[in-house]
């Protein structure tokens, strides 16, 4: 039931994105026409886009699936220190994605000279939308946890100790909050159930944020006919998707979903960027990246995605990890984890030069 709801949610989202991008077709002012040069060649760019679809798909699958097989490697088991360090590295990548890739793109689009002075140049829409997105993410995060907590306490969702035909229910949960170094009164289902639900909420919301900006990135590549730009983007996006997939894969692993839901989450993460590229190719004749409608639509989507990713990276991933009992008990492990965060954020920041 939960798996079918997840499929419907992401399918509806992709349909909405398609509708928005089709609306992003308008008359482009002469001063905003895309410049043509020796690199602009539609016929030569098409094979590169097809290569991009398959190479990014493969890189995404490798990235998101690699953490899911770490249980067979003792050193990378979720309870081991190395897994914590790798997860912090991936969290740094997600944080840098929000700050260094998605947010600057939104600023550039919504402050473009191709947009009207009023209101786009008189109000910082990017920061405003990113802030609202972070607040909405907090609301969803908190409300989802509260709803499932009440259902569990009311007996709608059985706890781990309850006999359930077909195995353990996926939504075992009681009142859950972020653990920030202080203790709450013990709850009936225990800390293990609380932490499990926390992981599940994080994985779902993080996937949503990644899917948004992945479609936008793919759309940009698919609509471009600049062969010089596409070549650099393909290589950079392969690394981008692989490392970002590692972060999401780690969250999916800790959420302990059933096989079907794992497959659904891996599938949607892997196909969203290729889907965006295919959509960009289909709309390449009518989609104008410098048209006011396109700049506003993609700019606002990027801003909302940035707010979500930054919130998730700082609050649900890094803060929850560093304020948790495992890292609080070891200064040495904290230092290694901080180094991993800086390394991941630095690597993704460096890639902002190309993508």
Structure notes:
The structure is a single chain. It is globular and about 55 Å long. α3 (81-110) packs across α4 (125-153). The model is unreliable at 159-189 (pLDDT under 50). It has helices at residues 2-23, 42-65, 81-110, 125-153, 190-223, 227-255, 259-282, 292-322, 325-328, 331-350. By secondary structure, it is mainly alpha-helical. It contains 10 helices and no strands.
Q: Name the overall outline.
A: globular
Cα radius of gyration in angstroms:
21 Å
Total number of strands: 0
Q: In DSSP terms, counting alpha (H) and pi (I) runs of 4 or more, how many helices? A: 10
Uncertain parts: 159-189
For the record, give the distance between the C-alpha atoms at the N and C termini, rounded to a whole number.
38 Å
Residue-averaged pLDDT: 80
Strand content: under 5%
Q: Which sequence of SSEs, written as H and E, runs from N to C? A: HHHHHHHHHH
Look at the helices and sheets and give the structural class: mainly alpha
Please summarize the sheet with the most strands: none
Helix content: 55-70%
